[in-house]
Specification:
By secondary structure, the chain is of the alpha+beta class. The protein contains 24 helices and 26 strands. Helix 23 links the parallel strand 25 and strand 26. The radius of gyration is 27 Å and the shape is globular.
């Protein structure tokens, strides 16, 4: 039985950590340093490990502690999560105001205006001030339980600042900040995966991960905007009350008097949307008084007292001045259109991605063309179409260069691949990108090792490949610009701490072409079965060096193309030297626990291929769902394929499935299978 002093210390640590979370993630005003925070969390973890009877669901240590879910359970909302009607221009917004004033019999109505965050709508349930359940919006009446995933979001308080008696249901929007969205899409592009169309899709995919630990790897946040169970009489009063309870409320809301002030607010928010750091696609206008809302009521599932005023699409026309090529960490060459500068949504755009040569051919974009561009998801500039009718002269067709623009190494294009790659293993562009990938959050997660630091380390000859990071001394780091003794020591300790990481992360950090986070976990699961739970890194690499493509193709989720790439990569002498350096540096894998597939499921024993764009989740998440339910995600269609899930933009895989007579379903049918009872 723990002593009273230990119980008191545990309570003190929990209170201090939650206070720090509130200051950092809700108030955006941290008081203590990262080192102090980490120290308190380590102390609390140690005390809870020694005294497991003290662990509670509300402890900060439990934010990432739930096991992976096999499927999301349905949750019936205590009150419907309503959708809003839309207004697309000032006249439609004025018509809404006219209907409201007529129904209430008043000449002027007060409104609360809020930003419309582009994310995933969720419901947070608190009972006596403690977070007990979280769910997605779903169809408005029934959602999916994602409690464990929402616990990983540090701006979601596990305990309210005031223990409000009874049940409180808080509604909010989980979103992915712009910087995290761009980083996610860059990684997906380098892996040859479809890009998320907008921050909402990316947030939805992250929040609905089967494994909460993967959700924790994403930089998700939340803004809340409504609640049931609190005694307030107005929307603006509710927002103040939510903030007082420690919940994160977007600070850009405003109480306005009449429709003219609504339009003024909307114009101000539209002008600053590019500076916000998160996706916004309009403003939400709500009648402020709750008694007025009750009088106005609903039509179908839309409230008569609220409306979403959508911002206009952000597009512009400009000229392609040049098409340049950029080199990623795996050597993939990405064409980028350099444009005559043009204003799009208040931001000057000078470049737009063209993704790959196939996309350049599909759009038939040529240097000198007039093109329509847009900010995809209000974030990433991309070319929508080329205005071919505007050509006044014959323009030469653009092609990939034969030599790498960074190192003059040969460019290779393997049969069956979309990507063109630099074949030079020592290409400096590849090495720089590879270093950035190696230290990233989803890989070795070395905090503080940003691009500025990595560039200096490369320029000074201190690091040539990722393994060299572990040989750095405090003195090496002190030689970099803007580093003092304490900051150099902190970075050194973080690098040393990264010597021990889960095996899946280590494999992902290697930067093997076509091998993303899911495939890395698949490899790790196979390796623990081959080598046991105590294997060291040398044994892991030796087994992978000895693996044939046929061995690797036998792993769930790995198709022939990926299997061949992995075998070729581990046979490469240059890569073998790098792997040996990692072993000699003392990197240690944490071997995974073996997965146990459910005894029955609609996917058990079936080979499933995804093609095209999925709109409710990423392809990686969908494959993980199939894998957890005993299925075998595959990268290509063959006679062994049992099912193909096709989304918009499906191409050759869909055609091959039809030729072979394989069953093809869309994402709606896939969702119905997920919700079906076991056979």
């Amino acid at each position: 039985m723990p002593t009273a002093d230990i119980q008191r210390r545990v309570a003190e640590l929990r209170a201090a950590i939650e206070k720090a979370n509130y200051e950092y993630h809700v108030l955006d005003a941290p008081v203590i340093s990262d080192e102090q925070y980490d120290g308190m969390l380590r102390e609390l973890l140690g005390l809870e490990e020694a005294h497991p009877e003290l662990v509670t669901p509300e402890s900060p240590t439990q934010r990432v502690g739930a096991p992976p879910s096999e499927r999301f359970k349905p949750v019936e909302h205590s009150r419907p999560m309503l959708s809003l009607g839309n207004a697309f221009d000032p006249d439609e917004l004025r018509a809404f105001d006219q209907r409201v004033r007529k129904a209430l019999g008043r000449d002027r109505v007060d409104y609360t205006c809020e930003l419309k965050i582009d994310g995933l709508a969720v419901n947070l349930t608190y009972v006596d001030g403690k977070f007990t359940q979280g769910a997605t919006r779903g169809d408005g009446l029934t959602g999916e339980e994602i409690t464990a995933n929402l616990r990983t979001i540090r701006s979601v308080p596990l305990t309210l600042l005031e223990a409000v008696p009874g049940r409180v249901d808080v509604r909010g929007e989980v979103y992915l900040p712009v910087s995290a969205f761009e980083a996610t899409n860059r990684e997906r592009a380098e892996r040859g995966e479809p890009l998320f169309a907008n921050p909402r899709n990316a947030a939805a995919g992250a929040a609905r991960q089967i494994d909460p630990r993967k959700t924790a790897e994403r930089d998700l946040s939340i803004y809340v905007y409504s609640a049931a169970g609190l005694d307030v009489g107005t929307q603006h009063g509710l927002l103040d009350r939510l903030k007082d309870l420690g919940l994160r409320v977007n600070p850009k809301w405003r109480l306005v008097h009449g429709i003219d002030e609504v339009l003024e607010y909307a114009e101000e928010r539209r002008a600053e949307r590019e500076e916000l750091g998160y996706g916004v696609d309009g403003v939400v206008v709500k009648v402020d008084r709750f008694d007025d809302q009750e009088r106005l009521g609903f039509v179908a599932r839309n409230p008569r007292w609220a409306i979403a005023y959508k911002f206009p699409a952000e597009q512009a026309t400009t000229t392609v001045e040049e098409i340049k090529v950029y080199v990623g960490r795996t050597g993939v060459l990405t064409p980028v259109a350099w444009l005559a500068p043009v204003q799009v949504g208040g931001t000057t755009v000078k470049r737009a991605t063209l993704h790959n040569l196939d996309e350049v051919r599909r759009l038939d974009v040529r240097v000198g063309d007039l093109v329509l561009i847009q900010r995809a998801g209000d974030v990433i500039p991309e070319v929508v179409r080329a205005e071919h009718d505007a050509r006044t002269a014959a323009l030469p067709e653009w092609d990939m260069p034969a030599r790498c623009p960074e190192c003059e190494g040969p460019v290779e294009h393997r049969e069956g691949e979309v990507a063109y790659r630099c074949a030079n293993p020592s290409c400096p562009a590849k090495q720089g990108q590879r270093l950035g990938h190696f230290v990233s959050r989803g890989a070795m997660d070395i905090e503080g090792a940003g691009w500025a630091v990595l560039s200096q380390l490369q320029d000074r000859g201190l690091v040539s490949d990722p393994a060299d990071l572990f040989s750095l001394t405090v003195a090496d780091i002190l030689s970099l610009d803007r580093y003092a003794e304490k900051s150099a020591t902190n970075l050194y300790e973080r690098v040393q701490a990264a010597k021990e990481r889960p095996l899946g992360r280590i494999l992902y950090a290697l930067g093997i072409p076509h091998v993303g986070g899911t495939t890395s976990e698949d490899l790790a699961d196979w390796l623990v079965g081959e080598l046991g739970p105590t294997a060291d890194l040398r044994s892991v690499f030796d087994r992978l060096r000895a693996a044939t493509p046929e061995d690797l193709e036998g792993i769930e989720g790995i198709g022939p193309v990926v299997a061949g790439t992995i075998a070729e990569w581990f046979a490469d002498p240059e890569e073998q030297a790098f792997l040996d350096k990692l072993v000699e540096a003392g990197v240690r894998p944490i071997m995974p626990e073996r997965r146990v597939a459910p005894p029955q499921s609609p996917f058990k024993g079936k080979s499933v291929v995804f093609t095209g764009t999925l709109e409710r989740r990423s392809r990686e998440d969908a494959e993980d769902l199939v894998r957890r339910l005993g299925g075998k995600p595959a990268a290509s269609v063959s006679k062994k394929t049992d099912l193909v899930v096709a989304g918009p933009g499906a191409g050759t895989k869909l055609e091959k499935a039809k030729q072979l007579g394989i069953e093809v379903i869309d994402e709606d049918a896939f969702d119905r299978l997920l919700g079906s009872p076991p056979d």
